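Quick one, tokens below. Sequence please?
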């Protein structure tokens, strides 16, 4: 069993589940490839307005599947292909996805799990969730692109603490450092993530997509002015303004 990424849907909300039974949903190489396929498909679909990403059972994701590591990690070219091809392929597909992604985090959010959560737009965690990247214990560093993503989401101070001290932090600590959107009792994480997704799905999908593109451009230091106002004559723009003036809910 190499684990799997599953995609289900409830109306306009997609649900992506990390599943690797017996390994706290640790990411195998096959799962990274599936992650890219799933999020490339979501990005191109007009069926979805929000994605909820969760781990199966009581964990989000406890890292990479270390049982696979001896097969490739000791060869430089194979290691580069793993990180720059498979891992970054999955993470970049998430980052490039124009649909808002809500992370539903329970239990372990470690290593690869932290990287995946860092690619989500909103992060909702249970009080018992744990966060870290203690890979120094395994004798290797975080890959450059992955470190950049985590540092941007969690902050430079936090990622240095995790990498240099192998620190594992609580949900309360990660909330105080700005990584988490909300922290709930463990039993309420799924309901809170679903409620967040429902709120997003009720709003303009066009606005959500455009906001994600703008935020990507801002993060990359790229200009956005040339295409920033092309939505002017769009149906959703007209409907949103008309609904406000007519004192009724907008129908997106």
């Amino acid at each position: 069993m190499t684990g799997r990424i599953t995609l289900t849907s409830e109306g306009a909300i997609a649900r992506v589940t990390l599943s690797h039974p017996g390994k706290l949903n640790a990411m195998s190489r096959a799962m990274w490839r599936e992650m890219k396929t799933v999020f490339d498909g979501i990005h191109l679909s007009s069926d979805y307005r929000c994605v909820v990403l969760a781990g199966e059972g009581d964990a989000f994701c406890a890292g990479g599947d270390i049982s696979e590591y001896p097969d490739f990690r000791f060869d430089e070219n194979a290691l580069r292909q793993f990180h720059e091809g498979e891992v970054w392929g999955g993470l970049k597909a998430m980052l490039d996805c124009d649909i808002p992604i809500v992370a539903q985090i329970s239990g372990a959010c470690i290593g690869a799990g932290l990287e995946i959560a860092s690619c989500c737009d909103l992060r909702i965690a249970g009080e018992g969730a744990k966060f870290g990247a203690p890979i120094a214990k395994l004798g290797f560093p975080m890959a450059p692109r992955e470190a950049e993503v985590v540092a941007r989401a969690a902050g430079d101070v936090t990622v240095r603490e995790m990498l240099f001290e192998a620190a594992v932090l609580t949900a309360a600590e990660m909330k105080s450092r700005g990584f988490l959107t909300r922290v709930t009792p463990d039993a309420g994480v799924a309901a809170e993530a679903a409620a967040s997704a429902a709120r997003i799905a009720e709003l303009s999908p066009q606005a959500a997509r455009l906001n994600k593109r703008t935020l990507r451009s801002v993060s990359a230091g790229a200009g956005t002015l040339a295409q920033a106002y092309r939505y002017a004559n769009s149906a959703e723009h007209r409907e949103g303004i008309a609904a406000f003036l007519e004192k009724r809910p907008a129908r997106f």
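Residues 204-245 form one domain. The chain is about 45% helix and 15% strand.
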